[in-house]
Design a protein that fits this description.
alpha+beta
């Protein structure tokens, strides 16, 4: 498996980017490595858990629905003062993510609903090859998984 890590571009906007194989193992590694990076940035507790869940869901979707044989997916996180922007890019631009409004019990389909609940915003943008699904996850406040900071 080829992987590539970038270092922070500045002390104000740390960036983490990694290419992984578009497999279940690659999706699992994306979550584990994102968790380690969040820890290194000092993002812990419910905020880190929310970002980890978003990475896990988007990486699973990239491995399952965005897979093209021989092509990797890329996970990218950008740490800002009050949020983390997560981006997952894959090679299947024609397969746009659509949240299921009526998933069958036990059939799955709740991933994007979870992303929408944890993120302050999410969406899809085109690339030359494929697409990027992005989400911004607040580190405090509005997110039900993240308790407001004291005095907020």
């Amino acid at each position: 498996m080829k992987s590539e890590t970038t270092t922070p571009t500045s002390e104000f906007t740390p960036v983490f980017a990694l290419r992984l194989s578009a497999t279940r193992r690659g999706a699992r590694l994306a979550r584990l490595l994102a968790a380690q990076q969040l820890h290194d940035w000092g993002v812990t507790g419910p905020a880190a858990e929310a970002v980890e869940l978003v990475v896990a869901e988007l990486a699973a979707n990239a491995a399952l629905h965005g897979r093209v044989r021989g092509r990797d997916f890329e996970v990218r996180m950008e740490r800002e003062e009050d949020q983390v922007r997560v981006e997952l890019s894959d090679a299947r631009g024609e397969r746009l993510p659509l949240p299921r409004t009526d998933p069958e019990p036990g059939e799955g389909g709740y991933g994007l609903l979870l992303v929408a609940a944890l993120a302050s915003a999410w969406g899809v943008k085109d690339r030359c090859v494929g697409k990027t699904v992005w989400a911004t996850v607040p580190l405090t406040g509005r997110n039900p998984a993240v308790p407001p900071s004291p005095g907020a």
